Amino acid sequence: MELLPGLAISASGLTAERLRLDLISGNLANIYTTRTAQGGPYRRKVAVFAERIKEAMGSPGPQAPGYGVHVAGIVEDNTPPRLVYDPTHPDADAQGYVALPNINVVNEMIDLITASRAYEANVTAFNAAKAMALKALEIGRV
Questions:
Q1: Which residue from 69, 101, 105, 112 has the fewest beta carbons nearer than 10 Å?
Q2: Do residues 66 and 77 lie in contact, with contact meaning Cβ atoms separated by under 8 Å?
């Protein structure tokens, strides 16, 4: 049994949202990358979250939900690349179109705001759980 499961739950959320923020910044940094090692333009990356399940009381039986979150994987967005007419670009095709990454700045900024708000919410929950634990320790001293 964990002493403070609230801290562990908030910490898992902080870790997951930090990875999501890292992916968003990587997407924005590669918005004009037209050539990758795999060939073609950079593909937008998205984190997939899943609920972390913990076995109840250490038994192999039923599992209790609600013990945080983890990153189940990082997937590439399958949206086709944006085609922009620029015949002077070195990666332009025969018709003069360049395949740019499938990244929309507005969507990335919305994701950035929601990820930062979720991060802030997890920090607040972590600090509240920590404050409650400290108050509980003070009760024991009296």
A1: 105
A2: no
| Nearest-angstrom CA–CA distance, 25 and 78 | 19
pTM confidence score: 0.82
- 26-72: per-residue pLDDT in tens? 999 999 999 999 888 999 999 999 988 765 555 454 555 567 899 99
CB burial readout 43-66, b (16+ within 10 A) else e: bbbebebeebebeeeeeeeeeeee
* Continuous segment of H or E residues that includes residue 45: strand 45-51
For the record, the structure tokens of 9 come out as 């739950």
Helix and strand totals (H; E) in the chain: 2, 6
As given in the structure block, the two tokens for residue 78 are 């399958």
Alpha helices in the chain (DSSP H): 5-29, 105-141
CA 44 – CA 27 distance, rounded (Å) = 6
